[in-house]
């Protein structure tokens, strides 16, 4: 079995120490094979915030694969935003803005959906879209095929339609037709799992994570994270997404929901 810990939007600079302690205890107990961090690692892309994030990442009991979010680009330092927007991210988190992780059972493709010229909205270029499609087409049948980015591609609240990746209507079917199983994202601090459709009958999924650590929770939704499990038995795949929420009463993460994903191996 492969186990992934999906974290998003910790917003270091607004992190809550007691939640961070609980998350590290949860990770130590679950012992994931890999942690995936889908952006907004910091609140204002400052070096001290990235240093705190790095210290947290180094305490996780698994390698970490990450992509930047819009908050990981300087907002008020216009010179840095224009000429070195990912400087602090590269120095403290990763020099690779679009990482690739592959094992015999797993393919994870990182995509940088941020744009320095945009305040918060996400967008991809044709070369990025084609790179992902090409990698998905080359995946092996036993691999769980995941794309990670910061911006969501499906909304459950009308107010979040404006937060969706620009051009998602064209991008998502291309990636599903190419073999994508699951897209992981964040940005809106609202966790959910939803099906996605290709141009034909093939289906994929998206899983949103809430904010892992920040005090900037959304409404009544607490800090939350996702735990993804995948296993194969010959040609048969089993995959699930569990949402775990922080409970103040116990100061620990508790299971909120479990969703089994039907994976389509027609591609």
TrEMBL record:
GO MF entry, a single one: metal ion binding
Domain Calcineurin-like phosphoesterase: 3-190
Source organism superkingdom: Bacteria
Keywords noted in UniProt: Exonuclease, Hydrolase, Iron, Metal-binding, Nuclease
Gene3D superfamilies to which the protein is assigned, alphabetical: 3.60.21.10
Nuclease recorded as keyword: yes
Family: Belongs to the cyclic nucleotide phosphodiesterase class-III family.
Record's protein name: DNA repair exonuclease
Organism per entry: Halopseudomonas oceani
């Amino acid at each position: 079995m492969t186990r992934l810990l999906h974290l998003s939007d910790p917003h270091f600079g607004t992190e809550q120490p007691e939640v961070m302690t609980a998350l590290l205890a949860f990770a130590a107990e679950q012992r994931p094979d890999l942690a995936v961090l889908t952006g907004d690692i910091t609140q204002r892309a400052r070096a001290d915030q990235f240093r705190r994030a790095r210290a947290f990442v180094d305490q996780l009991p698994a390698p970490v694969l990450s992509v930047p979010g819009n908050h990981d680009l300087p907002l008020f330092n216009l010179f840095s935003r224009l000429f070195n927007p990912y400087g602090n991210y590269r120095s403290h988190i990763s020099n690779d803005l679009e990482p690739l992780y592959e094992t015999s059972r797993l393919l994870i493709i990182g995509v940088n959906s941020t744009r320095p010229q945009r305040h918060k909205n996400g967008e991809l270029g044709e070369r990025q879209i084609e790179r992902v499609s090409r990698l998905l087409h080359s995946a092996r049948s036993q691999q769980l095929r995941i794309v990670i980015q910061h911006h969501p591609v499906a909304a459950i609240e009308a107010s979040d339609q404006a937060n969706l990746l620009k051009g998602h209507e064209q991008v998502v079917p291309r990636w599903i037709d190419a073999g994508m199983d699951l897209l992981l994202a964040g940005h809106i601090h609202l966790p959910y799992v939803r099906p996605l459709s290709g141009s034909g009958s093939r289906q994929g999924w998206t899983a949103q994570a809430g904010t892992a650590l920040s005090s900037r929770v959304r409404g009544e939704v607490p800090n939350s994270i996702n735990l993804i499990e995948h296993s194969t038995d010959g040609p048969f795949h089993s995959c699930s997404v569990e949402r775990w929420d922080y409970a103040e009463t116990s100061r620990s993460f508790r299971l909120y929901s479990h969703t089994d994903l039907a994976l389509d191996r027609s591609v």
